[in-house]
């Protein structure tokens, strides 16, 4: 139920209400608005109801603007499934992995993959993160001008590939996979909003097709080589087996003791790179950008990192003590949730906000919309990590309304991995470097499959602060 405060301080409950967005164009509906100014349009829907009808071409779609409705949609996978043209196009590109598969196959995949993401394995993944963060810090030099979007994307995808394949992937293959994935992410949103875009024989579409072909070829070769090496007792941990994420996925079985096929493994690679690479890099970039524009928060965060890290690269032993850093990352994901829009299809008639939606209806879940409701997050456009303090400290974080990782059975399986990765990167980078935005830089989100700025160019300056973590001499690999 929607809770509002009356003028005398009492609380009252009001049932979620449905509404309709104005301004639909003949034939195309709101598709032009979604292409031209998607975020502003989506946020405007808050004023039209808790379940708002929009038009995608001639067909209606229903946008969830209330957390109770969002939980209903996300937790009832039998009613709200991943079917329809958007997911058909996603599966054609990425395969039928955990983030794109339908209800029929999701439970089996989740059961197989869940053990690989147990908390007991996180420490090993964090060590990979620490090594790659250190390598990036070694590469950066005073006065360098870098694009933080590209740097973060490269770093998080390298971490994801190493967590997946240990050291069994070449630098060339890793770079080609990153490039192919970037092309895919730039193209899939346009195809979802305007399906006819994919049929135009444009240079962008030709790049898209080539990138996907290259992606599939490389991943298939990696898995084939991995299978052969594993069967021959190749390099790795005890018993000649690798101790990495792919090893755990290869060995995992469902409740009928069936393993994943090579095709299924290939599909999961795409999902894991999306979750562990692009979405995490977006969280890192937005956090760094917001910190640069809120110097008082940056100063407090650096006081924390100077004390906790003491000049080290952030690692497992520091993670629990980086409280403000973790809250800053969480607040950045509230303002700019990476997976900002996700569709579902009603597979049977259902009532939402008092309205009956017939089977076949499209329902759109957008954490970007939910996170900017002023009744749930006071002063919703403000960057305020303190809103995530424990309730006893005076904050009211509305955790049930914070859904960047989704909810229910389809909640992101790599949530702990991604939050740890973003926290470690932000902590180490801000402890060691001052980032100066280049003159004339305008940072704005680009709405594609993942919400991220087009670019964020900065100049690097090692911190000269006398604090323990501020000396330039501390840059380098972890001790």
From TrEMBL:
Chain intervals for the UniProt region annotation (Disordered): 1-21, 459-479
State the similarity comment.
Answer: Belongs to the cytochrome P450 family.
This protein is called Cytochrome P450
The keyword Iron appears for this protein = yes
Q: Which UniProt keywords apply?
A: Heme, Iron, Metal-binding, Monooxygenase, Oxidoreductase
- PROSITE patterns given for it? CYTOCHROME_P450
The cross-references to Gene3D superfamilies, in alphabetical order and at most eight, read: Cytochrome P450
Region forming the signal peptide: none
Q: Which InterPro entries match?
A: Cyt_P450 (IPR001128), Cyt_P450_CS (IPR017972), Cyt_P450_E_grp-I (IPR002401), Cyt_P450_sf (IPR036396), Cytochrome_P450_Monoox (IPR050196)
